[in-house]
Amino acid sequence: MPVSRRDFLATVGVGGAALGGAGAGLLSLPAISGRGREALWAQQAAQGVQGVGDRKADRRMAAHAAIRIDSNENPMGPGANALNAIRAHLNEGNRYPILAEDDVIEAIAKLNGVTPNNVILGCGSGELLRAADQAFVSRTAAFVGAAPTFEAPGDFAAFLGAEVRKPAVDSKLRLDLGAMGAAARGAGLIFLCNPNNPTATVHSRADVAAFIESVNRTSPATTILVDEAYFDYVDSPGYGTLIPVALENPRVVVLRTFSKAYGMAGLRIGYAVGRTETLAQMKQWVLGSNVSQLTLVAATAALADPANIAAEIKRNSAVRTFTRKFFADAGFTMTTGDANFVMVDLRQNAAEFKKKALTKGIAVGRAFPPLTNQSRITFGTMEEMKTATAAFRELLGSTAGG
Q1: Cα–Cα distance, 298 to 153 (Å, whole number)
Q2: Nearest residue to 131 (alpha-carbon basis) of 288, 284, 26, 250
Q3: Is residue 22's pLDDT more than 60?
Q4: Quick one: 123 exposed, middle or buried, by C-beta within 10 A (0-12, 13-18, 19+)?
């Protein structure tokens, strides 16, 4: 029976059972590199993939959930201009996307006040995270992240044989910059996700810049990768991009993605900004023509449509206010939600709450150890959040205050 590429990737993603032995575990680890890991689990469940332990039922229900607020996706999808660009260029699918790459790089450079030489593209930011691991970590140069933060770069660093150091977030669920700095001595790469996923907390530009200066002094060979995937959604005072620092400092790289505010998670495009000599170390690990022709024209059109991004930011802000008010009124504490999601202390096991929510047709984020009682809730549409919070009110029951 023929096996499709999708079937193959799904099988490898749950442990490569068909391969067996230690090799299966090695293949399974880096196979899951995207930010929508929950979506992959759902796909596997829909295909009836076996051998996934006690998460199997959860994924099966998630695949059919009416409301998907589990993977930090933009529920509105790409803007009209981006969709129109895709339609208009369908007949160019027979051409390699060389000119379109130049167009989107020029648009990205203009948006961020840099030159095209300061930008490289990735198939989502996931490819660039792996390229950074390949370029900067090794068996003798550790990876520094946090517990919890976005896991994919740390997982891949471990696959490469690097030591992975994960200082816990602080009492406010923010990255503990002091602990990360102490862990950075002799490290090859620090992954600093700001806002942090899954906690939706931020540090000011000044704090991150001071952190970088400190690391430069104590561990001058360490590269700091600042992931600004949720940059557009932040309205916290003092927050700002580190791109100007990356242009001056060869030990700093900034990542951005079109998966969040631009609603293009399924189209797969991200980019890195930094000095040319720094990006050159990453670029050798990035595939040529790694972004499709249709994705490139969609991204170029999206960048030329600031009104759509402004509308998305306004929409997300309104939904964030509604969602946070619901949990606050119910007596639950939560993070500020400086992204398109929030982390809520439900005072109960997050994995169990996820299962209960799935019975109501609502998929929320999985558990993120060591925050076992915290649930990550993505902001869907206002209609979705009204339906979801009504279900949450019933599910939380006696644990809710107020």
Answers
A1: 27
A2: 284
A3: no
A4: buried
Domains assigned to the chain: 1-64 (no CATH), 80-303 (3.40.640.10)
Structure tokens at 208: 């991150």
- What are the pLDDT digits (tens) for 380-402? 999 999 999 999 999 998 666 54
pLDDT classification of 58: cutoffs 50, 70, 90: low
Query: Taking the alpha carbons of 366, 370, 187, 27 in that order, is the dihedral positive or negative?
Result: negative
Question: Which amino acid, 135?
Answer: A
Containing 105, the helix (H) or strand (E) segment is helix 98-112
Average pLDDT of the residues of the chain:
88
- The percent of the chain in helix, strand and coil, each rounded to the nearest 5, is 50, 15, 40
Q: What are phi and psi of 375, to 5 degrees?
A: -115, 130
Average pLDDT over residues 17-35: 41
Identify which of 389, 388, 398, 372 has the alpha carbon closest to the alpha carbon of residue 327. 389
Placement of tokens 């400086």 in the chain: 338
Which residues in 272-307 are b (16+ Cβ under 10 Å) and which e?
bbbbeebbebbbeebeeebbbbbbbbbbbbbbebee
Name the one residue in this structure whose structure tokens are 């997982």.
155
pTM: 0.86
Identify the residue whose tokens are 């150890």: 369
Lowest mean pLDDT among 180-184, 204-208, 249-253, 398-402: 398-402
pLDDT at 51 over 80: no
Q: Are 190 and 215 in contact (CB under 8 A)?
A: yes
Q: How many CB atoms lie within 10 A of CB 24?
A: 17
The answer, yes or no, to whether residue 122 has pLDDT greater than 90, is yes
